[in-house]
Design brief:
Helix content is about 35%, strand content about 15%. By secondary structure, it is of the alpha/beta class. Bound molecules: zinc ion (ZN) (2 copies).
Length: about 290
């Protein structure tokens, strides 16, 4: 068998990650209520070198990322903008599958506690709504992500539990799956359209980052930081740190320069000036 030829070597990714390092801050100071302060949080940092030891397979040429909505999304959410941003972030085409009705979520996945909005169990959505899409789309998709405006939970034994999203990475030949909720972050009346959109882009790219087998980042201010509060989402940048960037680029076989070029163009088109500025600085150093 011919050894597979890669477009981006580990050495080149190490070089790229080194030269942009100075542009990234250490993990933002943590506050009570943040993800890192949660009981039972035992994740450990994983540097690029350790990530490589896991010998994860690569995205195959021709694969795409799929999206669909479950139930109605707020009108102002423009999936075409999300599509553009995600395509640049992961250098993969995005394809939309048919949207699903809210009643595709099994009735026993719901809970209603006191005066909270009803919440749906994200595990049940992965299992019963998204997983059935895996086999029919084997090979074709690297990941399938559902977006919903329903509030999600992960641990039904914890009355206060909620999550912004949940994901399960794929296996060779089968796509990973993820679900993201816009319920707690989409507040255009309170914080404006642009901040709401930035939060949405952060959540979706974070969950897809997990589909690239990237774990939570504990070293830098990074889009792969675990988050518990909206404030925490707002504190970290939309970009991944140099270590997490190297992981995504390795799995996707993307050159960081090409990725930066695409991201600069899309951030300018979508008027995301601060993100565009960061990508321009990265590009100069690369
Ligand atoms: Zn996460
Ligand atoms: Zn990171």
């Amino acid at each position: 068998m011919q050894p597979q030829e890669f477009e981006v070597s580990i050495e080149e990714l190490n070089r790229c990650s080194q030269v942009i390092k100075a542009l990234f801050e250490p993990m933002v100071e943590q506050f009570r209520g943040d993800w890192t302060s949660q009981e039972g949080q035992t994740e450990k940092p994983e540097i690029f070198e350790e990530f490589l030891k896991r010998k994860i397979y690569h995205v195959k040429k021709g694969q795409s990322l799929a999206f669909f909505a479950i139930g109605r999304l707020p009108q102002l959410i423009l999936l075409s903008e999300l599509e553009e941003f995600v395509e640049a972030y992961f250098s993969l085409p995005v394809i939309f599958l048919s949207d699903q009705e809210i009643n595709s979520i099994p009735s026993d996945a719901w809970r209603s506690i006191l005066c909270y909005v009803p919440q749906a169990n994200a595990n049940s959505i992965l299992e019963h709504v998204i997983k059935p899409q895996k086999e029919p789309n084997a090979i074709r998709f690297w990941g399938i992500t559902a977006i919903t405006h329903e509030d999600l939970l992960c641990d039904p034994d914890d009355d206060l539990d909620y999550v912004y999203g949940l994901s399960r990475a794929g296996e060779p030949g089968l796509p990973g799956i993820a679900v993201v909720s816009t319920r707690r972050i989409w507040q255009p009346d309170a914080v404006g359209f642009e901040l709401s959109r930035l939060r949405l882009f952060k959540l979706v790219t974070h969950e897809i980052g997990h589909l690239f087998h990237v774990q939570h980042c504990l070293t830098h201010a990074c889009n792969m930081n675990g988050v518990e509060t909206v404030d925490q989402i707002d504190r970290h940048p939309i970009e991944v740190c140099p270590e997490c960037m190297a992981k995504i680029c390795w799995i996707g076989q993307i050159h960081p320069k090409a990725r930066c070029d695409q991201l600069i163009a899309v951030c300018e088109r979508l008027n995301m000036q601060s993100a565009a500025g960061l990508y321009r600085k990265c590009r100069e150093l690369l």
